[in-house]
Amino acid sequence: MDCVVRATVRDELLHRLSEGRVQLMGILNVTPDSFSDGGAHYGLANAIEHAERMRLDGADIIDIGGESTRPGADEVGPAEEWKRVSGTIASLASSAALPLSIDTYKASVARKAAEAGVVIINDVWGMTRDREMARVVAETHSVVVITYNRGKADGAINLRDDMAAFFQDSFKLAEAHGIPREHIILDPGVGFGKTYEQNFSALANLDVLCETGCPVLVGVSRKSFIGRLTGNPVDDRLTGTLAANLESICRGASILRVHDVAVHREALTMLEAIERAK
Length: 278
Known about the structure:
This protein is an alpha/beta fold. It has helices at 3-18, 44-57, 78-95, 107-116, 133-139, 159-177, 196-204, 207-210, 224-230, 238-250, 261-276; strands at residues 23-29, 61-65, 100-103, 120-123, 143-147, 184-187, 217-218, 255-258. Strands 6-5-4-3-2-1-8-7 form an eight-stranded parallel beta sheet. α2 crosses α3, α3 runs parallel beside α4 (107-116) and α4 (107-116) runs parallel beside α5. It is globular and about 40 Å long.
């Protein structure tokens, strides 16, 4: 993708977020082992078909992942991860139909993805796992999703205070590398380095993230804490997902990362209609 086109795609997305328009990020896992849809969209033809379906269903962003981040998943080397995602990125970026995001914590993969047209680097380790990530974000002028992820759950911490401290450290790291504040999106990191109870607390304390002025991304789609609460298997967690996501919007979330795009688009349309009637 031409760098001017890429910058335009990025800036249009940031403008929509600045206007308070909730964005749907459709999940495109090109992996054989993701917790919900592992293997379903593995292979270029399947991935492109699913991305187009999500676009038609109302996705605003496509988030492409080449390594499962579910607990216990096997790590994938950067060469294999790039091999999995490169064709899909090249195909989708060529049309510039939607902004693309790369779900990776590896700086080398993030750099290649940005050079190929991706505008968002979605790092579930919040630029802490690979110390080169902040440099890559800055040098490629990418938007970055910084996820609150301590790595290991600790039920004794005050989650609200710890989350605030984590993001303050993130801002210092970003500033040191020249990443503009307006290029930062924050994610409470539901399912990452948290106890079962802390997943709910992270959502209940979204104001900690919103008060920074950065857009907030919430990714709870079909996750295990919903299944533990409801007793439902992974393919039957839509109701719980919707409830958590709609409540998150009410608490200030700007982006919802979801598997079920069409249903969420319908729900957002209803919310927007009610809001316009005030």
